[in-house]
Amino acid sequence: MPYTQLKEMDDVNPEFPQADVALVISANDAGIDNRLYTDPETGMFFSDAKKGLAELKAAVGEFAG
After folding, report:
1. Which of 3, 12, 19, 20 lies in disulfide reach of 7, CB 3.0 to 4.6 Å?
2. Residue 7 belongs to what domain range?
3. Is the dihedral of CA 36, 37, 42, 43 positive or negative?
4. Spacing of C-alpha 47 from chain mean position
């Protein structure tokens, strides 16, 4: 994805109420508490970024048919 298409969280946050799904890609900063880890409405997918995105793309493609 071209860097120019990336958005800062503060800029994209207002769009979340209109979204059905959000895919947030981020590094896991050690030692920083993240309330999303315990949020029951959040799923976490841990993987190597390139490999994991390829897996997610394939899975969504199968689901969307």
Report:
1. 12
2. 3-64
3. positive
4. 12
Q: Are 42 and 36 in contact (CB under 8 A)?
A: yes
The structure's pTM equals 0.50
Q: What is the CA radius of gyration of the chain?
A: 14
Best CA proximity match to 60, nearest among 38, 45, 42, 40: 45
Rounded distance between C-alpha atoms, residue 32 and residue 12, angstroms: 22
User: Domain count of the chain?
Assistant: 1
Dihedral of the CA atoms 63, 54, 52, 62 (nearest 10)? 10
Tokens, residue 30: 């050690």
Asked if 11 and 5 touch (Cβ cutoff 8 Å), the reply is no
4-51 residue pLDDT tens: 888 888 998 899 899 888 777 777 667 778 787 788 988 888 888 889
